[in-house]
Design brief:
- The chain is α/β, with parallel strands linked by helices.
- Helix 1 (44-59) packs parallel to helix 2 and helix 4 (118-128) crosses helix 5 (150-170).
- It has a five-stranded mixed beta sheet with strand order 3-2-1-4-5, sandwiched between helices.
- It has a single domain (4-170), classed as Ribonuclease H-like superfamily/Ribonuclease H (Nucleotidyltransferase, domain 5), CATH 3.30.420.10.
- It has helices at residues 44-59, 78-93, 103-109, 118-128, 150-170, and strands at residues 9-16, 19-26, 31-38, 63-67, 97-101.
């Protein structure tokens, strides 16, 4: 696909219990920046919004992508749901479009994998974007808490899902055949 909408600058954000992770893409092939931000416990949402506003001002994304907290498989707490709604309002205020994908839609975007759980998806992202490879945590044991670095991969998975959705929407619905030229 050569459509310019696939070359959009995308800011994907994954809120966490202690802050948020983000990934910024310039089209599906170029990971521009990523990070994990932690904030003080008091006023988490306000501090997160401040930092997200700074990211939006710095990178001027075309689209801000978040998790659809009301989607199947999402278990977001009230504070995080409120933060996601605030981020969506901020994106619109700053002139960016907003998109949200459920965990089910993310798994569907990575449907070619044998398993579409978090770690295989993160491993695929580390394969596609080698600069993230050293951030990839090991497989989580059932008795362990999730490694905070996994949220960087969750943010990247949101952006990849966005680009997958765009590419599928742009595919022609009718296959065309080359017709021989009349002589």
């Amino acid at each position: 696909m050569t459509d310019s909408s696939l070359m959009a600058r995308v800011l994907a954000i994954d809120p966490t219990t202690s802050g948020f992770a983000y990934a910024i893409f310039e089209g599906p092939g170029f990971l521009l920046d990523w990070g994990l931000t932690q904030v003080r416990p008091e006023q988490k949402n306000a501090l997160c919004l401040e930092r997200i506003d700074a990211l939006v001002a710095r990178y001027l994304p075309d689209v801000v992508v978040l998790e659809a907290y009301d989607g199947k498989g999402s278990h977001r707490r009230r504070r995080v749901r409120s933060l996601i709604r605030s981020i969506q309002r901020l994106a619109v205020k700053r002139g960016a479009r907003k998109r949200a994908f459920s965990r089910a839609e993310i798994r569907k975007a990575f449907g070619s994998l044998d398993k579409t759980t978090k770690h295989p998806i993160a491993t695929e992202i580390a394969h596609r974007y080698p600069q993230l490879g050293w951030h990839l945590p090991g497989v989580r044991k059932f008795y362990e808490s999730e490694d905070e670095r996994m949220s960087i991969f969750d943010a990247a998975a949101l952006a990849v899902t966005y680009f997958e959705a765009r590419s599928k929407r742009l595919k022609p619905t009718v296959e065309t055949r080359d017709m021989p030229l009349a002589a």
